[in-house]
Amino acid sequence: MEEEEGFQGAADLFPPGYSTKCVEPQLSGKMLVLDYILAVTRSSSTDKVVLVSNYTQTLDLFEKLCRSRRWDHVHKEESQDRGEIQQSLAGGCGLNLIGANRLVMFDPDWNPANDEQAMARVWRDGQKKTCYIYRLLSTGTIEEKIFQRQAHKKALSSCVVDEEQDVERHFSVGELKELFTLNEDTTSDTHDKFRCRRCVNGRQVRPPPDGTDCTSDLSQWNHCADKRGLQDTVLVAAWDAAVTFTFHHRSHEEQRGVV
Fold first, then answer.
1. In terms of Cα–Cα distance, which of 103, 100, 89, 111 is closest to 214?
2. Mind telling me which Pfam families this protein's record contains (predicted)?
């Protein structure tokens, strides 16, 4: 295998016999979790899933995974660097985007508006089914840093537009400079930086404040370092694959409908 500039020695990191012709989810934590999400969704419901990535190469991997599992899918690229692939999880069902109610954001965008626009694919006016949106981030990597920068941008917007003063829970300029520092000793670098006072030893002991929902600041969501307390059966089933921490919440509408 010919090495490209900047990737010298990278080939030694791959296991013997590795081939780019097939997808091996067990070699990637996020891909393994995705594999579980799709498999459990397919076996337990008729839901459809939209997979979103910023990179066409990643979309190609999604397609290989779906093909290897013999799952019906449609590959759609909207631009050069952002696309989506939709998987029909019910045999014989039409593959229309409007029918999807689960969405997986495989990687974050530097601009939070782009991610919010992508998430609106399934969470939209006229949607009758409960929507589930999964954002997958590799713990301690630059992906968490990108996500933290999104939160920082939204916090600054709140200060300027909404004149909110409580920004203590957000991130300093110095923390934003740590983008390329790999933290291998954490279950969630983002949760660490929130300096959460509702969790003790990684476990939530006080629920989010009244009136919060999935549009609230992430620090006000439910924090979970294990699968206890999760109500999404798909996420519970996928937890043991490679999940170390989750932030989760529900909309006001769904909470009102729960007895």
1. 103
2. Helicase_C (PF00271)
What is residue 157's predicted lDDT score, i.e. its pLDDT? Answer: 61
Helix 142-157 crosses helix 112-119 at what angle (to 10 degrees)?
A: 90
How does pLDDT run across 205-217, given as a tens digit for each residue?
A: 999 998 888 878 8
For Cα atoms 154, 150, 229, give the angle at the middle one, nearest 5 degrees: 95
Average pLDDT along the chain: 80
Number of domains in the chain: 2
- Domain of residue 180: give its range: 142-228
Q: Note whether 148 and 126 are same-domain residues.
A: no
Residue 96 falls inside a structural domain: yes
Least confident of 74-83, 176-185, 210-219: 74-83
Q: How far apart are the first and last CA of the chain?
A: 59
Q: Which CATH number characterizes residue 79's domain?
A: 3.40.50.300
- Do both 156 and 109 map to the same domain? no
131 and 146 belong to one structural domain: no
Contact predicate 105/81, CB 8 Å: no
- What's the confidence (pLDDT) of residue 133? 92
Region for residue 124 given its phi and psi (left: phi exceeds 0; alpha: psi -120 to 50; beta: otherwise)? beta
Residue 32 falls inside a structural domain: yes
Residues 114 and 160 in one domain: no
Q: Give me the residues paired with residue 200 across strands.
A: 203
Q: 64 in helix, strand or coil?
A: helix
What digits encode the pLDDT tens for the residues 21-37?
Answer: 788 999 999 999 999 99
